Each structure stands twice: as C-alpha cells, then as structure tokens.
Please model this.
Amino acid sequence: MTAFWILTALAAALAGYSVLFGARRPAVVGPAPAERAERELEELERLRDRGLIEPEAYQAARAEAARRALADAPEPSELRIRPKDRMIVLGGLGVAVAGALGLYVAVGFPGYGDQPYARRVDDWSTRLETLEPAQLAAVADRVARRNPEDMTAQRMLGAARFEAGDPIGAAQAFRRILERQPDDAQSWARLGESLVRANQGAVGGDAEAAFFEALKRDPGQLGARYFLGEAALTRGDAAAVRGYWLPLIAALEPNDPRRTDLERRLPR
Model:
C-alpha cells in the first residue's frame, strides 16, 4: 500500500507540474481572416470558373484582394497568463486530487492490503451462494486438489469451469473422472459439451465420439442425442438425424420451443 500512495503522489505532482509548465508560455492569438476579403476571393473564383474574367486579370485581382486583406488585418495580440491564473489552475488540480482521495476514504479501504490469492479463496469458500462462476471454479479447484479421488468434487470442478467460460479446463476435469469411471455416461456427455464449446460451437470428431460413448451407456442422455443429430445434419445424413432427434422430440413437452425448433429442422 505504501508504494501505491507514493506512486499516486508522484502522479499528482507530475500532473501539476505539466499544467504549470504549459501555463508559463503565453499564447499568441491572431485575427480571423477578414470576411470581406474571403467573399471577394470567392467571387473572383466564380467569375473565373464561368469564363467571365481572363486568367491574367484573375491573378492580378486575387493578388490585390490578398494585399488589402493583409493591410486591413489587425496586429496579433499576445494572451498572457497572470500568476493568479496559475494559482487558480493549481488550486483546481488540488481540489480534484483531494476529492478523489476523499472518495476513496469514504467508499474504499485505506491501508487494507491486497489479499493473497489463497486467502481470497478461503473467503469465497464461506459464501458460495454469492460467488461469480470464476470464483466458484477456484473454490472447486481447491476442493478437487485436496480430494483427487473424490469424483463428486471433480464433477463440481468440471461444471464450475464450464460455467466460468473455461471449456478446456472443464474437459480436463471430466477426463480425469472418466479415467476412473469410464462408464459414467453423464461425464461423457459433459466432456462432449465442453469440447463443443472449446471448438466455437462446432461438433468435432472428439466431441462426437464422447457423445456416442454417453449415448451407448445411457440412451436417455438427451444432450448427447442433440449434438449427435447436429453432427449428422452437418454431414447431410438425414436418416441419422431422425434417429437421434425423434426420441428427443418425443421427450420434450409439446409447448417447449426447443421441440418446435427441432421439428422445423428435422429432415423429411
């Protein structure tokens, strides 16, 4: 925390110095171009474009108009910065820094050091209902590491990683389960879903094999049926699609929108 406050003070001092250094240099304010001269030049250009004035006459008239514009222009004036103005700017900067510090004191935790990752996981494990998916995955990972033979912990880890957007990590957890319990149909199905998500929604060969293993062990794995039907639909195998999806359609309620979508996409 000490380093944080030192860096904050240095940043504020650097900002103040930059403002004051820029304010030391006076700005030169020059006059805007005369509107009358602009209108005259525009009129000359229109006459030239319409062929009503010779090129030589146009050049001479343009030079004369420019000469008159320069002669009529007022002298540039210098905008000087008074010492009082510098103090006003510096005071505004000080107020901004003080306001930010006061806001941090009011809503932050001054002097409260950052917690080590392990301590944060300790805190998360006491309030599982309020955790984000990534935090829940961290807690599940700790439990699974401490109990590598507990397949329930591994299933929780795989599900938590899947929800946290880590399909590769989820697939690793489900593979560890299947090394010990190769007949776990649900883990085969969850492995396939993880591989599909890791493949940007496409049902690759490894995911299709996982879904096939799940369905072989448990024909009631409806998720596996869905994805196997998707893979068959991509290949153009209408018979296989119907074989996978018809039982799935029959298992869904008539008013389920998923059933309507499957019936619409089912090859005839």
Observations:
- DSSP finds 13 helices and two strands in the chain.
- The chain has two domains: 2-107, 117-265.
